[in-house]
Write a structure and sequence with these properties.
The complex is a heterodimer of chains A (342) and B (176). By secondary structure, chain A is mainly β. Chain A has five helices and 20 strands. The longest helix of chain A has 7 residues, at 52-58. With 176 residues, chain B is an all-alpha fold.
Chain lengths: 342, 176
């Protein structure tokens, strides 16, 4: 602050009137001093301007925030910038799509918003009395519109392999490439009666072509077509999902597709979830399946709990009842899945 | 040469006239606050509870879960404070009247939860016009509201019931 350019002489009127005029030293303020009060003709608000919100708005991101919502921009596309509410990207199905553990949902995977690009990866293991399941995959989310996914599943027959004469610990492999397109609605926002609706397909290929044909399957690869509707009914804290799947897959495709006398059928996948908190949801699912091979291929069901540990990491645990698989009945066990999403 | 010219020009400058209205000279618009409420004065508009954007609940238990009118007001004010401090959306709030927002938001929550208030604010489309709110911004606000409700000890199902009233308003609020 620059003060005092030059001392000046001044007289106060009071002293001038009462006493013998005495010189008094006053200080004239410098260049950056406050101007004299404006004449009364110009009105000014008495309250000072509140600059605090502006200061906060232009303040740099704190370390915590910077870590929380990172991502960047390439051209006009937000890349891995996130923005979705927790759990609204769903978890990952055994076929690699965004959904519940078993059922496909209309949700688009990844944490991106409209105009953004998101990524998600998952790994799932299911432990059954006589079999083991392992699947893993990746998913690309394009805005709030499109989801592209790839996944691979390994199905370990353990001792049953020897029993069926295909070899101890024989492992079936299935590759799935999926696509999903959101047609209308939003899982959280908009009209309560309008769910998020999406159509999609899943092209699957069994890596065990000769074997599944020997078991009676017509083909080693096939495509499922799906239409899904999903809505979070906030007033009830309920997540409701229904999916119709037009499919000819035997045990999701692990045992090939169709048979000599059976082809495409419409199957149903339903999920019901109750939101305990922003991070936690519990629920149940049911999925019908065809029995083209006559091996007693049962409907699947599960009771699940999903928890978002962070914005990016969600774990799902479930009790699954997969019924009879390849004539071996009572396949009930544990399901554990982890999803990392950006 | 340039320096000399500049110096000469500066010396030739006339001192500005006394009492120049600098705000007018630079086109600064000054919004006036009401001395009693501390809110900026705005143009009149038709007031109606219909502006709140949804029909209210009729449940004494729900009002109780939010801590009555006092609790609701505290939650609304806290939501605004959290959002002002939230780097994701602070810029949207920077140029707006937070005193008024705290009051109208509190009235809106109070009305929608059936706690017996009237909503005196504008409708959602008018209130958010030209703000350029995105769905990501709305998500950030929802998270701040959830934080405020959790701090106030509102049970999660009750929190969701308020959100159920607000979620359909995204059509009016989200403009890009």
């Amino acid at each position: 602050m620059m003060l005092l350019l030059a001392p000046a002489l001044a007289f106060t009127s009071a002293t001038a009137a009462a006493l013998e005029p005495a010189p008094q030293i006053a200080f004239a303020l410098g260049l950056d001093a406050e101007p004299e009060a404006a004449p009364s003709s110009i009105h000014r608000p008495s309250l000072p301007l509140d600059t605090a919100p502006t200061q906060r708005a232009i303040a740099p991101l704190s370390d915590v925030t910077a870590l929380d919502d990172e991502g960047g921009r390439i051209g006009k596309v937000d890349v891995l910038a996130g923005g979705k509410l927790l759990l609204t990207n769903g978890v990952t199905t055994v076929e690699g799509s965004s959904g519940g553990g078993l059922a496909r949902w209309a949700t688009i995977g990844g944490r991106q918003m409209a105009g953004g690009l998101g990524l998600s990866a998952h790994a799932t293991t299911i432990v059954l009395p006589d079999f083991g399941w392992r699947s893993y995959g990746m998913l690309l989310g394009l805005g709030d519109r499109v989801e592209l996914s790839i996944a691979r599943a390994d199905f370990d027959t353990r001792d049953v392999g020897a029993l069926l004469g295909i070899g101890q610990g024989y492992t079936f492999n299935l590759e799935t490439a999926g696509a999903k397109l959101r047609l209308a609605g939003d899982v959280v926002y908009g009209e309560t009666w309008l769910p998020q609706i999406a159509i999609g397909l899943e092209h699957k290929r069994s890596r065990d072509g000769a074997l599944v044909r020997a078991l009676g399957a017509a083909e080693a690869s096939g495509t499922d077509y799906t239409i899904s509707a999903t809505k979070l009914l906030l007033a009830q804290s309920l997540l409701v999902n229904g999916t119709l799947r037009y499919t000819k897959a035997n045990e999701l495709g692990l045992l090939g597709f169709g048979s000599a006398n059976a082809g495409y059928r419409v199957e149903f996948e339903g999920s019901l979830g109750y939101q305990l908190s922003r991070r936690a949801v519990i629920g149940a699912e049911y999925r019908t399946k065809p029995d083209n091979l006559g091996l007693g291929d049962d409907d699947w069901m599960d009771i699940f709990a999903a928890y978002a540990l962070t914005r990016h990491l969600t774990v799902t645990a479930a009790y699954v009842d997969l019924g009879s698989i390849a004539t071996i009945s009572d396949q009930r066990g544990g399901f554990l899945s982890a999803q990392v999403a950006f | 040469m340039l320096l000399t010219t500049t110096a000469a020009l500066m010396l030739l400058q006339q001192a500005p006239a006394e009492g120049t209205d600098w705000y007018a000279e630079f086109g600064v618009e000054v919004k006036e606050r009401d001395p009693v409420t501390g809110e900026f004065l705005i143009d009149p508009y038709p007031m109606s509870n219909a502006n709140a954007g949804a029909t209210p609940y009729d449940s004494a238990r729900l009002v109780e879960a939010f801590g009555g009118r006092t609790g609701i007001r505290r939650i609304a004010e806290r939501t605004v404070e959290l959002s002002e401090a939230d780097p994701r959306i602070a810029a949207i709030f920077a140029s707006h009247d937070m005193v008024r927002l705290k009051r109208t938001l509190s009235e809106q929550f109070c009305y929608l939860l059936g706690a017996g208030c009237d909503y005196s604010g504008r409708d959602m489309r008018a209130a958010h016009a030209e703000m350029g709110v995105t769905r990501a911004d709305m998500n950030a606000l929802v998270e701040n509201l959830q934080d405020a409700m959790r701090e106030a000890g509102v049970p999660f199902p009750a929190q969701n019931r308020l959100l159920a009233k607000l979620a359909p308003m995204s059509r009016e609020v989200v403009t890009r």
